[in-house]
Structure formats: structure tokens, C-alpha cells
Design goal:
Catalytic activity: meso-2,6-diaminopimelate + H(+) = L-lysine + CO2
GO molecular function: diaminopimelate decarboxylase activity; pyridoxal phosphate binding
Bound molecules: ligand LLP
Structural class: alpha/beta
CATH class of the largest domain: Alpha Beta
Keywords: Amino-acid biosynthesis, Decarboxylase, Lyase, Lysine biosynthesis, Pyridoxal phosphate
Largest sheet: 9 strands, mixed
Strand content: 15-25%
Family: Belongs to the Orn/Lys/Arg decarboxylase class-II family. LysA subfamily.
CATH superfamily of the largest domain: Alanine racemase
Protein name: Diaminopimelate decarboxylase
CATH architecture of the largest domain: Alpha-Beta Barrel
Length: 428
């Protein structure tokens, strides 16, 4: 990120503070998040999409009160997918009309809370939910703005677990076979619902624009079918999140303006062909906003050389603060940041401290061959889906998130868990 540099002694500094100082003040492992980078990325998305579109930050990537305040100040909206995320958003003062609620199995409590608060939209994901949300809204004397989530049937080129637009998965209602059209039919009949649009999210960590383009085209085709059948032009489409980021130097991500241009071009062209007014477009980037803004700082505890096999470098965290390597074979890079070294680089495996051999942070890393206990290692691009997917496995204490503004006045935005936190829940 922009505020990271290396000083003359080879020590990396962040917003003017050396990582050694940061490790002393905040401990390790810890996530350090560059606030100005986060805000700049929010603005890049807003500017790329312009005033005739809405950018919803996907809170699942990482959410805290500070994040909500920054989003509010940078004029972004917020996508939440659980009662917990909704509570955080409302607590930190995000206006309800700027919140969208997602989920394939929202509870009655979650829906009720969202409708009561007056969220801007609920994204409907099943036939049961269409009826459920309508009943709750009617009971509360409200008309809830909703979108219908559809699966457009494209195979996004990403890991199977994070691809969501092919038909055989749990999200959405399929365009193929007419379930999506049937969902529209049912939603339009219910007084508790104001159907405002169609939603499609094709997956995550995607570099290729083609999937987004197919998705946009098929969603517009559905708008045309809805107009032909019901005489209604739905005013909004949401094309989800999913833009990939660079985890290693091999990744070549697209910029927000590239996806904005691609989507606008397709939607405008398809609407013109179908004789539709261009709907308001929204998108839901999570990873692309927060992913690159943070790195994890670890301390090396042991270095174990297995002759003829490999060297294992163990750090003081692991799968409890970054499950992505174990879960998706995700690739990360790692650097020695507490000193410079002229030693030859060697291939190592950076692992965590958990009781599990799959507890890998970086599968194949190059570190100076004199890497030793006490060294600090940084793993970049851990802003998305690391703290938010962190666990207490082995009763690990989840690490803090420290915001580092440009002036270097680092401050904790999510504190480190303590043993007291762990034991507080254990009431047996
Ligand atoms: N909108 C919807 C409806 C989503 O389901 C998601 C992600 C997003 C937006 C944001 O996608 P993004 O722009 O962050 O790619 N845990 C996985 C990612 C799962 C994403 C689930 N949905 C990972 O660590 O890669």
C-alpha cells in the first residue's frame, strides 16, 4: 500500500512508523490497515461508477464500526449478510436506507429487524423468502423495497467454493427454466413488497470481465421479459461484487473504472436493443476495496530444516487468522520486514502454530536463508476475508486490527481478544 516503505536499515515503515515499533506497541500477530488507502479505494469505485450508480461495500470482507464510519464519509452504501453485520452497521450510524440485506436463509428475526430499521433493500433468495418478507413487512405496515437474486448460469473462473452463478449451488433463483421469472411474478403480487430490481453475483476473485458481461446481458434480458409480461420496467440492477485483487505478483487485477465501463457499455447497449430505459446499476465490491489495504505482521518462533525436504518457518498465528490458504489453496506472498538481509533467498514453507499440518500461511515462499526466531514477517493483502473469517481454533485469541493513517498515529479499531473474552462465553 502507498504508505509502506523500507528505511535505510531495511526496516519497513508504515505511515512513518517502523514495524518493529508497531509490533512492540500492538503485539503480533496483528493486522495493520491503511486507512487512507481504504478511503482512496472507496473513492475510486464511486468515481468510476458516478452519481447514476450505487456502490455497496460488501461487509463480509471485513466490517467494524470504524469501517462503517469511513464508508459513510466516503459516500458508499453497505451490503450486509447477517444480523450481526446489520447490528454493526446500524450501531455505527449507517443510515438504514443505505443498507442492503443479503443471505440465502435469513431468519425471521433478521428480516424483522431489517424491515423495522427501514433498510434500503432486501435481496430475496428463495420462493419461501418472498412470502416471508412480504408477511413481515405487511405485519409491520410497511412496503419493503426488494430485489430478486438470480443465477445467470455462467461459470466464473475462480475456486469452486466462491463461484456463485452456475446453477447447481445454493444461492439465487435460476434464469434458465423460468424460476427467476416465476419469482418476479410472485413478488409483484404481494402488497408488502416493492420489487425494484434484479440482483446477480457471479463469484469472487475474478479477473476476467467476460463473466460480468454475460451476467449483465442476461439480467437485462430478464428486465425485458418482465416488461413484456407485466408492463413493468424494474428500475435497478445489481451486478454484485467479485473483482479480484493481486495476492502475488502473478495476479493482474482489473481496475474499478474498467469494470464500470464494461458494465455500463453492455447494459446501455442491451437496454437500447430491448427498448428499455437504462436502470440504475449497483455493485458490491468487498475484497477489491479492503483486501489490498492491510497486511498481517507475524513474529517467527522456530525455523525447522528437514534435510532433503524443506524448511518450515513457524509464525505466531496461522489458520486462525488466515484460513484462506487452507480453505481455497489461496496464494500469498511474505517478506522479512524487521531488517535487511544479504543472505541468499531460500524456498520455505511459512506455517502457523496450530495443531494441524494443513495450517499453512504461505505454501512456497522465498525468504533470506538466515531467517530466524524473532524476525518479523509481513503477509500483504490480508484485508479481506482474514479477520472476518478468523476463528478461535485451539483457543487462539483473534488478532487486533490496527488502523494506520497517513500521519502514523496508529490506533486499534478491533482489539485483540483476551483469555477473559474466551472464558466469558464458557459458562459451564
Ligand atoms: N455480493 C455478494 C452477494 C456476495 O456474496 C459477495 C461475496 C460479495 C458481494 C463480495 O464479493 P467480493 O467483491 O469481496 O469478491 N470467503 C471467500 C469469499 C466469499 C465471498 C462471498 N460473497 C474468500 O475468502 O475468498
Amino acid at each position: 500500500s502507498r504508505t509502506v516503505t523500507r528505511n535505510a536499515d531495511g526496516v519497513v515503515t508504515v505511515g512513518g512508523r517502523s514495524v518493529t515499533e508497531l509490533a512492540e506497541e500492538f503485539g503480533t500477530p496483528a493486522y495493520f490497515l491503511d486507512e487512507s488507502d481504504f478511503r482512496a479505494r472507496c473513492r475510486a469505485w464511486r468515481d468510476a461508477f458516478g452519481p447514476e450508480a450505487d456502490v455497496f461495500y460488501a461487509g463480509k470482507a471485513f466490517l467494524s464500526r470504524a469501517i462503517v464510519r469511513w464508508l459513510k464519509e466516503e459516500d458508499l452504501n453497505l451490503d450486509v449478510c447477517s444480523g450481526g453485520e446489520l447490528a454493526t452497521a446500524l450501531d455505527a450510524g449507517m443510515p438504514a436506507e443505505r443498507i442492503a440485506l443479503h443471505g440465502n436463509n435469513k431468519s425471521t428475526e433478521e428480516i424483522t429487524r431489517a424491515v423495522e430499521a427501514g433498510v434500503g433493500r432486501i435481496v430475496l433468495d428463495s420462493f419461501q423468502e418472498i412470502v416471508r418478507v412480504a408477511h413481515i413487512a405487511e405485519r409491520l405496515g410497511k412496503r419493503q423495497r426488494v430485489q430478486i437474486r438470480v443465477t445467470v448460469g455462467v461459470e466464473a473462473h475462480t475456486h469452486e467454493f466462491i463461484a456463485t452463478a452456475h446453477e447447481d449451488q445454493k444461492f439465487g433463483l435460476a434464469l434458465a427454466g423460468g424460476q427467476a421469472a416465476e419469482a418476479v411474478r410472485r413478488a409483484l403480487k404481494l402488497d408488502g413488497l416493492e420489487l425494484v430490481g434484479i440482483h446477480s453475483h457471479i463469484g469472487s476473485q475474478i479477473f476476467d470481465m467476460a463473466g460480468f458481461e454475460v451476467s449483465a446481458r442476461r439480467v437485462v434480458q430478464l428486465l425485458a421479459e418482465v416488461r413484456d409480461e407485466h408492463g413493468v420496467e424494474l428500475p435497478e440492477i445489481d451486478l454484485g461484487g467479485g473483482l479480484g485483487i493481486a495476492y502475488t505478483s502473478e495476479d493482474d487485477p482489473r481496475e474499478p473504472h474498467e469494470i464500470a465501463t464494461a458494465l455500463r457499455t453492455i447494459v446501455t447497449r442491451e437496454c437500447a436493443a430491448a427498448g428499455l430505459a437504462v436502470p440504475r446499476i449497483s455493485v458490491e465490491p468487498g475484497r477489491a476495496i479492503v483486501g489490498p489495504t492491510a497486511f498481517t505482521l507475524y513474529e517467527v518462533g522456530t525455523v525447522k530444516e528437514l534435510p532433503g525436504l524443506r524448511t518450515y518457518v513457524s509464525v505466531d498465528g496461522g489458520m486462525s487468522d488466515n484460513i484462506r490458504t487452507a480453505l481455497y489453496d489461496a496464494e500469498y506472498s511474505v517478506a522479512l520486514v524487521s531488517r535487511s538481509s544479504t543472505a541468499e533467498p531460500m524456498q520455505v514453507r511459512v506455517v502457523g502454530k496450530h495443531c494441524e499440518s494443513g495450517d499453512i500461511v504461505v505454501r512456497d515462499a522465498f525468504l533470506p536463508s538466515d531467517v530466524a526466531p524473532g524476525d518479523l514477517l509481513a503477509v500483504p493483502a490480508t484485508g479481506a476475508y482474514c479477520r472476518s473469517m478468523a476463528s478461535n481454533y485451539n483457543h487462539a485469541l483473534r488478532p487486533p486490527v490496527v488502523a494506520v493513517p497517513e500521519d502514523g498515529k496508529a490506533r486499534v479499531i478491533v482489539r485483540r481478544e483476551t483469555e477473559e473474552d474466551l472464558l466469558r462465553l464458557d459458562v459451564g
